[in-house]
Each structure stands twice: as structure tokens, then as C-alpha cells.
Amino acid sequence: MTESAAESALPQARDAPNAAVPLSREQLYELVWKEPMLHIAERLGVSSSYMARVCTELRVPRPPRGYWAQLEVGEAQERPSLPPALPGDVESWTVGSTIGTHRPRAVAVPESDKSVPGSRLRRKPVRDTSHELVAGVRPFFLKTRSSHEDGLLRPFKRMLVDIVVSEAALDGALDAANQLFQKLEAKGHRVTFAPPNAYQHMQRAEVDTREPTPKGTYYERPWVPDRLTLVYIGAVPIGLTLFEVTENVEMVYVDRGYLPVRSLSPAQMRRYKEPVHWRTHRYRASGRLCLQAYSPRSRVPWTKQWCERKPGELVGMISQVVRELESAGPELATRNAEADRKAEAERIAREAQWKRQREEAERARRAQARQDARKDLLGAIAAWNEAQGIRSYFDAMEGALAGLDETERPLVADRLEKARALIGEPDPLALLRRWRSPEER
């Protein structure tokens, strides 16, 4: 991508900020190393901090602080090369579209670990070694809507890793997800969020947390994140959802709420008697985790689950999960390729059908235009014949006036003028002027 090509993208984006004018990674890379970010952001109608977020999301290296001042005195460092796009990377950005980042950030140093004033001992900044998708997300999960009967969290923030659990199981779920993601990336399989526009060709598999799953009953869908959590086995995306199983539990009504019968003490069992304290069954969080892997391609249905029989078992299953995901990659690659071939064949057939429909519609339009033109022309001819008849009539009446006697002639002449005024002067050429040929229609 040359600088001139990158520069040409800016005026288009600036002149039409609401239009879909995408900037590729290559174009953005050339732009941010050509002039200060502040100037680019001003021309695009966004802030420089927002442009920095765009660069982070697209994995485009940008000049460090002080680069342009160093460049003026010839001391600027050599610009790094643009890294190749990885599977799942966002490869373009459209002016006006939203962007989100999920890069790890440094964790604040606890007060007890900070250096003592005046001391020469300096501690290194503490960084969270968790995977970027789970680093620092716990507080966001706890900022949740009112807890549902099942006890599962429903965070207000939607840009989160795909984990659906109760507060009691959150720490274990984050730890299991972190170990799984770290293990996958150690084997060379990238774990990341789906690109912002992935909803156009990827979808999340349905998650039913209930065990056992009843049939024919209403089920309120649990919380759903904004973006899919994906692992790339090679170039094959596989969706990952970690959820807590809910089980059917006998509940007793107490003080405008329900308590699990199994948690009651013997004294409570004797006190909470029907009919005042009636009993029912509700699905409640069980503490057991289940990992669901799925194909995000709607044309390639595939799901697989690894569920705990006892809380805490999932961590010990991670190696098995990784092996099975790796073995599923080649199979899904073959199925994805076949689905792509079928989709391409359907697209070609669909476009051919649309072309035939357009051609048939055009033929029908031309036939109708010819029919309408002929009808209008016949109307103009009929109007001309009528005009000729009217003229002939009045000319004949004018000639007949000469044969009338002096007493009758004025009366007939007056009536003739009134008749001519009523009919008006026929203009058959007016219809011909307004007439359009079939080619003009």
C-alpha cells in the first residue's frame, strides 16, 4: 500500500463521514506514520485517542510519544513493519463505525507493595498474567441486572468473554477459562473476540443451561455477549461458551421468595408447611461448569460439550478439551470449504435467477410500452379524425348561412358562434406532441 493510495482514502472519508468508506490495515499504517495522529483524527472527525484505539484493535503499530519531535532533528527510531493479520483480526475500519479493544492492561500496584518513600527499593509494576479476555473482567460481571431465579449473572456490559455463571461460580469459571485459553495459545491457537462485523457470517450456538432439558416449556434465554469468543484452530474459528449448569430443584415459598428444600434445617422443614409455604420446582445454578464448543458457521452445524459431574472437574479436562478441539479443526475446515462451495453455487444460481427475472421484467416492460404507445397513437389518430369532422361541420354550416334569408341568417349565425365556442378549436397536434414512442417510455 503506497502513501498516495492511503492518502486518497482520507478525503473520501472526510467528505462523506457517514458513508461506508473502509480503511484497511495497510492504509491506516501508512497514514499514522505519515503525519501526527491528531491531524488524521481531525480530518476524519474523531478524537486522537479514538484513533489510537482503532490502531490497537487493528494491531497497527503507531508512532511512540515524542516521535515527531525526534523526526525533526533526525533522531526518530525506524518505524516497525506492519505485522501480518492473524486469524480473527479486524482488517478494516469504516469511519463512523464502533470499535472495541480487549488488550490487557497493567494492574494497579497494591498499597502494601508500593515503594516506601525515601527508600532505594523499587518494585517492578505488577501485571496481570491472565489471558487478555479474562484479565480484569470480574468487576464487570458483578455489575449485573437483578438476579433471575436461576441465579446466573446478567452483566450490563456486553463486551465480555462468553461466560454465563452465577456469582458463586464466577471465580472458578474465570480461572478455568484462563487456563484453557492459555493452554490453547501455548499450542499456537489464537483465542480472541470475533470481529465487530462477524454477525454477518457467524452466529452463537444456542445455550440451554438446564439439566435435564424439559420439552415444550418456556425458557428465558440467559445473558448473551456482544461478540463471540473464538479459538482459531489454524484458520478455522470455533466458538467457546462456558456456562454453569442449572438443575431442577424443589423449592419452598418463604417470605415472598423461594428457598431450596434441600438447604432447610429440620426445624425449618417442620415450620414451612403447606399450604402457606407451598412447594414447586425451579431451575437453579448448580455450581457445575460446562464448556460448549460450536461451529459459528450457520451452514456447518456442530457442537460439543464438556460438562462437570462435580464442581472443579473442568480444569482437569483442559488437556482433553484442547486435543479434541485440535482434532475437530481439520474436519470443520473440510465442512467449511464444502459449505463455501455450496454457498458460492447458490449465489451464482441466485444471481442467474435474478438476471432472468430482470430480463423477463424488461421484456414485459417493453411489450407494455409498445402497447401503450400504440394505444396513445390510435387515440391521437382518433382525435385527428374527430377534429377533421368538427372543422368540416363548421365549414359546411358557414356555407349554408349564405342560402338563408335575411331574417333567419342572424339567428343561425349566433347559434353557430355559440356552438363553436362550446366545442373550442380542436388541436390534434397537441396529442402527437405529447405522444412518446416505445423507446422513450
Structure description:
Residues 342-371 form a coiled coil. Keywords: Coiled coil. The protein is an alpha+beta fold. It folds into 3 domains: 3-75, no CATH class; 138-312, no CATH class; 362-440. The protein has 11 helices and 10 strands. The strands form 2 sheets. Strands 3, 4, 5, 6, 7, 8, 9 and 10 form an 8-stranded mixed β-sheet that branches. The protein is elongated, with a radius of gyration of 39 Å. The relative contact order is 0.07.
What is this entry, summarized?
By secondary structure, the protein is an alpha+beta fold. 41% of the residues lie in helices and 14% in strands. A hairpin with a 2-residue loop joins strand 7 (236-254) and strand 8.
Would you tell me the structural class of the helices and strands?
alpha+beta
Element pattern in H and E: HEHHHHEHEHEEEEEHEEHHH
Count of runs of 4 or more consecutive helical residues: 11
Strand content bin? 5-15%
Q: Main β-sheet: number of strands, strand sense, barrel status?
A: 8 strands, mixed
Q: Mean pLDDT, as a whole number?
A: 84
How far the N terminus sits from the C terminus, by CA atoms, comes to 47 Å
Which spans of ≥5 residues are poorly predicted at pLDDT below 50?
11-19, 102-127
Please outline the helices and strands.
Blueprint: H1 3-15, E1 22-24, H2 25-32, H3 37-44, H4 48-57, H5 67-72, E2 92-94, H6 138-142, E3 163-164, H7 167-186, E4 190-193, E5 210-211, E6 229-233, E7 236-254, E8 257-260, H8 266-271, E9 279-294, E10 303-307, H9 318-401, H10 409-423, H11 428-434
Parallel strand pairs: 3-7, 5-7
Antiparallel strand pairs: 1-2, 4-6, 6-7, 7-8, 7-9, 9-10
Helix pairs in contact: 1-2, 3-4, 7-9, 9-10, 9-11
